[in-house]
Amino acid sequence: MDKHQFKVSLQWKNEREGVISSPELEEGHNTAANNSIDIATPPPFPGGVPNIWSPEHLFTASISSCLMTTFLAIAENSKLDFEDFSCDAIGIMEKKDGKFLMTEVHLKPIVTIKTEEDQDRAERVLQKSEKACLISNSVKSEISMETKIITQK
């Protein structure tokens, strides 16, 4: 695969808030309403703003969403018939050697499958997905995963 670029624009709004957007997302099924995300300093920091996405939330979300998109591709290639995928994620920020770092991300994917026979295959697809996730492979944070496979009743 060739080298690709992903363009993002950031504009400061006021105090500890800004807005991020991407000119690449203005076409297609996206609208101006969902082309941008308000972003702010998180509450743990001085002047932090509650109830607005922070870089730390986006960092954690990028790892979780990469797991999902990688899972979808591998599940399709593996012909895994599943009903649902969801994933809670917890990003851990701490201070090390005088610097704040996102040191860990805990992923908790849940896959709902149609039949019990797909249990092992679903687990293998999840494990392959975690290992192949390009965002996880691009960061130095420790990534852990606690999987759950549910059989549809």
UniProtKB/TrEMBL annotation:
InterPro entries: KH_dom-like_a/b, OsmC/Ohr_fam, OsmC/Ohrsf, OsmC_Ohr_Peroxiredoxin. Pfam families: OsmC. Gene3D superfamilies: 3.30.300.20. PANTHER family: OSMC_OHR FAMILY PROTEIN, OSMOTICALLY INDUCIBLE FAMILY PROTEIN. This is Peroxiredoxin, SACOL1771 subfamily. It comes from Psychroflexus halocasei.
